[in-house]
Design a protein that fits this description.
With about 375 residues, the protein is an alpha/beta fold. Helices cover about 40% and strands about 20% of the residues. Strands 1, 4, 5, 6, 7, 8, 9, 10, 11 and 12 form a 10-stranded mixed β-sheet that branches. Strands 13-14-15 form a 3-stranded antiparallel β-sheet, with no helix packed on it. Strand 17 and strand 18 (about 360) form a beta hairpin. Helix 1 packs parallel to helix 2. The longest helix is centred in the first third of the chain and has 23 residues, at about 30-50.
Length: about 375
């Protein structure tokens, strides 16, 4: 069975303005080693519970965070070697590593390439404007971001992606978005991701907006920058294969495609989620609890057929492939009928179109995708 593996590294130097993901301050080598041991204990649990102590075939591996690049390369070479005794990595299609630009020295990248199977980097650039980076509470500079890409290529990494954020500036301020797109064009990357700045509960961004210390783009400005992004992507030969992800020559983020196309995945680490055997599991957002016992604190639920149908439609409509008839045919007759009845109504409203054996959201409606998907629930 094709299975993805996600490893969550929750350590950060400082919290970004907009970040709602679980993270804690890094506390040294001994602490990281204890965390690695807990990851292996959790991996053994999954091997026993879902694979009858056989080695699961892992098709994609993603190391995310947090800030994985805070930890030294030997941490990962040792961890992946040990995980290789529990899982079958012989059929790996992709190994992705999230990193911050300020950590990507030539030496670090050369070692990462030489001593680990990582061949794809996802670099958290967010903006090529120093003023934006300061505003977002990022630690790196624009120059460091450009240098990180250069160092990565020299180390041998050609499967590169960067993250960018739009919607940072309100309409009465000068936007840096077009400048960011020009610099992105100069890098000629195979892949990039771009996200609207989103206000999440409990973040510094929310507190600053509520206090009036900061303003960000409104809906009209976000929409304008999104369609600037779409025009840029088309002109530069990027395929918008998911609402926030763009690739040339089918250089898709294969691991993330697992999430959008109903492929099972194992999540290891504090606050990590898993989807396997029609069950969803999640770990407590506490490194301390995770270190004490990475298994006993797990929460979970068994997904009903309707739950799985809803999740598939919600995520598939965000993608280039849309909702595929062959997948809908795997659900019970009543859910199939429900889907096709709703789909016909959305087609008449212009919110959906049929393309071959799939149903997709038209280009002009993509910003409304989540609302369109909700009509199916």
């Amino acid at each position: 069975m094709k299975t993805g593996l996600y490893i969550h590294i929750p350590f950060c130097r400082q919290k970004c303005l907009y970040c709602a993901f679980y993270s804690v301050a890094a506390k040294g080598e001994d602490y990281a080693q204890r965390y690695a041991e807990a990851l292996l204990r959790e991996a053994r649990y999954f091997k026993s519970r879902f694979f009858q102590d056989q080695k699961a075939e892992i098709s994609t591996l993603y190391i995310g965070g947090g800030t994985p690049s805070l930890l030294p390369v030997p941490f990962y070479s040792d961890l992946l070697e040990n995980l290789g005794r529990l899982f079958d990595f012989s059929l790996l299609e992709e190994v992705t590593f999230e990193a911050n630009p300020e950590h990507l020295s030539a030496e670090y990248l050369l070692d990462l390439y030489r001593y680990t199977p990582v061949r794809r980097l996802s670099i958290g650039v967010q903006s090529f404007s120093d003023a934006d980076l300061k505003r977002l509470n990022r630690r790196h500079s624009a120059a460091e971001a450009l240098k990180a890409v250069e160092n990565a290529r020299r180390a041998g990494f050609d499967n590169l992606s960067i993250d960018l954020i739009y919607g940072i500036h309100p309409a009465d301020e000068d936007s840096t978005w077009q400048d960011n797109l020009k610099l992105l064009q100069s890098l000629q990357l195979p892949h990039f991701s771009a996200y609207a700045l989103t206000v999440e509960a409990g973040t510094m961004l929310e507190r600053r907006l509520v206090s009036g210390k900061m303003t960000i783009a409104g809906e009209e400005q976000v929409e304008a920058e999104y369609f600037q992004l779409q025009e840029f992507a088309r002109a530069q030969g990027y395929e918008s294969y998911e609402i926030s992800n763009y690739a040339r020559n089918a250089a898709y983020a294969r691991h993330n495609c697992n999430y959008w196309r109903d492929v099972p995945y194992i999540g290891l680490g504090a606050a990590a989620h898993s989807y396997i055997g029609n069950e969803r599991h999640w770990n407590p957002a506490s490194v301390q609890e995770y270190l004490q016992d990475p298994v006993s604190g797990k929460k979970g639920e068994r997904l009903s057929e309707r739950d799985r149908y809803h999740e598939y439609v919600m995520t598939a409509l965000r993608t280039l492939w849309g909702v595929e008839e062959k997948k809908i045919s795997t659900f019970c007759v009543s859910l199939q009928q429900e889907f096709y009845q709703r789909a016909e109504k959305e087609i008449k409203c212009g919110n959906l179109q049929r393309k071959g054996d799939s149903y997709i959201v038209p280009y002009g409606k993509r910003l409304l995708t989540d609302g369109i998907a909700a009509a199916f629930f």
